[in-house]
Structures are given as C-alpha cells and as structure tokens.
Design a protein that fits this description.
Outer membrane efflux proteins (OEP), two-stranded parallel ribbon, 13% strand, four-stranded antiparallel beta sheet, alpha+beta
C-alpha cells in the first residue's frame, strides 16, 4: 500500500511538472514586464543612482551633529633668544624648546544662517529627482517590451493566416488535379497552383525565422537567457474604444515623470540658492578642546599636563568682492532656464499625447475598413472557387482571389496589432503604462 501511494505521488508530481512546463513556456505581457522590471540593467543603474542621492543626503545631514577631531603635534624650536626677565642669577632662557601635544576637539554648529537645513532640503529633492528618473526609465523599458511583444504576437497571427491560406491552397491543388484528370484544365494550371503553394510555404518559413529574431530582441530587453515564446493573441475580445483627448492630456500633465523631474530640479536649485545666501549671516560654532601636552622647555615644569578650552567661535564674512552675490545670481539663471524647460516639456508632452490620440483614431478607422474588406474578399473567394469548380473561372482568377483574401487577413492582423502598439504609446505618453500593464 505504501509503495502504491508513493508511486501515485510521483506520478502527480511528474504530471504537475509537465503541465507547468506546458503552460509556463509561453510568456504573457504582464510576465514580460515584470521580468524586465526585475532584470533590466538600465533599471539597475538607475536604482544605484537613487542610493547615491541618499548617500549625499546623509552627508548633508551629518552637518547637524557635532564633529569630533583628534590630533597630535610636535614642535621643535632652536636658538631661542634669551629672555630679559628678573628671575635671579643666571636667568636668561632656554636655548631650545620641544613641545608634544595631543588634542581632542568637539565642535557643534549653533547657527549657520539656515545653510545646513537648505542643503538637506536640496539633497532631498535630488532623491526625488532620481526616483522620477527611475520611473521614466521604467516607463521607457515597459513601452519597449510592449512594442517587441506585440511584434511577436503579430508574427504569430501572420503565421496563422498563412497556415489557413496554405490549407486553402492545398484544397485548390486537389481540386485542380481532379479537374486536370477530367480534362477540363491544362497542366500549366496545376503548376500555377503548386507555385502559389510553394510561395506560401516560403513566406511561412520566413515568418518562423523572424519570430526567433524577435524573441532574441525580447531576451535582450528582459536580460533573460532564453524565452520560448509569447502567448498567442486573440482578436475576439479586442475593444477599440477611446476616451476624450482632454482626459489623456490631464493624465499626462499629472503623471509624466519628465515634468516632475524639472519641478524637483527647480526646488533643489531654490534651496541651493538659499544655502549660498546663508553666507550673509554670521556663522556661530561652539567648541571644546582637551589638550594633553608635554613642554620640554627649561622654564616650564617638564611633565605631562592636561588642560581644557571651551568657547564660541563667531565667523562673519563682511566683504568678499561680490562672490556670494554672483553665486546666487548664477543659480537664479539656472532656475530661469529650468522654468523655460518646464514650459517646453509641457508643450512636448501635450504634442505626444495628441499624436498618439490621432494615430489611435486612424487605427480604429483602418480596423473597420479592414474588417469590411475581409468580408468582401471572403465572399469573392467563395464565389470564384464555385465558378472555378464549374469551369466558369480560370486558375488565375482563383489564384488572384486567394492572394487578395490572404492579403486582407494579413492587413486586418496588422491593424489590430498597430492599435495595441499605439495604445501602449498613449499609455507611455500619459505615464499610465505601469498601471495598465501590471494590474
């Protein structure tokens, strides 16, 4: 009984592995995006830049805390002039002096004209800027993944079209051979249908090789060693609906990381300007120093001695020939440049959204036209094939109807995928691509 139970467990495990291999081989778009977000090297680089900005923030925050300094000193002075002091007979002074001094100092800033606070705020904005850059790169990577992924799905759709066309051509070849055997058509007609069949097989073979190339491109973006394929796409549930243009424009102005980046830069420069202008205020520090020294001088008691120094240090730069003023003006010019850049970015973003919207309107119309054309070509093909069976149409007529039907099917698939690619572009332009593709 135990052996049977263990055998059943092994069978279930093996079947589960086989089932998992069969279902997990093909990559969904969500899985591709998740894999790209985890593995893409550009995103890894940007994550390091965020950590770099955080380190800069910690450096500025360290200015709030006291600074502890340890030091050592040795001074040697030779040929000291004699002192004219009433110290009794033989008084004069030492001929040389040696001083050994070890010190420990702690210094605490009390007032720096708000320089430290503004430097910390500027560094905080730099972190937000780096995070916004990460979001921008992430959106770009997701858009690239979607474009390549949809290209792979288009290839699969085209392969299915050619396979269907191949089946029709095989049926036509079978019909043509029967008509030839019945003496109703010439042998060249059979050759014509065979050539069409060969052309379809050649086109299908090329698509299969192109599919492998597309998967290689996807592997590069995802930084994945091997991708077996993408999930097939069905056009049955595809909805070609759009919201108003104003909705997309509002989403873009609220979400685009490029606009946020400029705002973070402006705030960072503003705080930097304030930190520069802090030099107009006096700088006040408190300090305490412990000295442990040994004076090797005849007039002093030659032994290790300690002493303490506690005090306040006030520094106020009264005149610097306009240096602070020009540094402040330099940052002001940078803020003006960024403000102009922000206006340019807003116009660029609106233009991108408008272009994407117009492309989607065109795609929607083209899909409707292609659907009507496909229905007409199907009817034409069926009529032509019936006439061909009755001897009322030539082989060239049948070949032309087959080619037009295949072309109509291919064009409809191209239009479907172009709609999806352009929809991904408007998601990128409105910075909602992560929300749309990961939920």
């Amino acid at each position: 009984m135990k052996i049977i139970l263990n055998s059943m467990i092994c069978i279930l495990m093996v079947s589960g592995i086989i089932h998992a291999q069969g279902t997990d081989q093909l990559l969904s778009l969500k899985d591709a995006i998740d894999l790209g977000k985890s593995n893409n090297l550009s995103l890894s680089q940007q994550a390091e830049r965020i950590e770099q900005a955080k380190a800069a923030l910690n450096i500025n925050k360290a200015g709030y805390f006291p600074k502890l300094t340890a030091g050592g000193l040795f001074n040697y002075l030779s040929d000291i002039p004699e002192f004219n002091l009433p110290l009794g007979p033989g008084a004069g002074g030492p001929s040389e002096a040696k001083i050994y001094d070890f010190s420990l100092q702690i210094q605490q800033p009390i007032f720096t004209g708000f320089r430290l606070r503004n430097q910390v705020k500027a560094a905080s904005q730099d972190i937000e800027y780096s995070k916004s850059q990460l979001q921008q790169v992430q959106n770009q990577i997701m858009f690239q993944i979607a474009q390549v992924y949809y290209a792979a799905q288009l290839n699969l759709l085209q392969q299915e079209v050619y396979k269907t066309s191949l089946q029709r051509s095989k049926n036509n070849l079978y019909l043509t051979k029967n008509l030839f055997n019945a003496g109703q058509i010439r042998s060249i007609d059979t050759l014509t249908v065979s050539n069409q069949l060969f052309q379809l097989e050649t086109a299908l073979n090329k698509l299969q090789h192109d599919y492998a190339v597309i998967l290689t491109q996807l592997e590069l973006i995802l930084n994945s060693p091997s991708i077996n394929g993408v999930q097939p796409f069905s056009t049955n549930d595809l909805l070609v609906n759009l919201e108003a243009l104003s909705v997309y424009e509002e989403q873009a102005l609220q979400n685009r990381p490029e606009l946020q980046q400029v705002q973070y830069q402006i705030l960072s420069k503003t705080y930097l300007k304030k930190s520069i202008r802090s030099a107009y205020y006096p700088q006040l520090y408190a300090s305490a120093t412990f000295h442990y020294f040994y004076p090797d001088v005849e007039i002093f008691k030659q032994q290790w001695t300690d002493l303490y120094l506690v005090g306040l240090n006030l520094q106020w730069e009264i005149w610097n020939r306009g240096r602070i003023k020009n540094q402040s003006r330099q940052v002001s010019y940078a803020i003006n440049i960024l403000t102009t850049e922000q206006e340019k970015q807003i116009k660029t973003v609106k233009n991108e959204v408008k272009q994407a919207y117009q492309m989607l309107l065109s795609d929607r119309d083209q899909i409707q036209f292609a659907q009507k054309m496909l229905q007409q070509q199907k009817q034409r093909y069926q009529i032509t094939r019936n006439q061909y069976e009755q001897g009322l149409a030539t082989t060239l007529d049948l070949q032309d109807a087959e080619e037009e039907l295949t072309a109509a099917e291919l064009q409809l698939q191209v239009n479907y995928i172009k709609w999806l690619q352009d929809k991904a572009y408007i998601y990128y332009a409105t910075a909602t691509i992560q929300q749309k593709f990961t939920n």
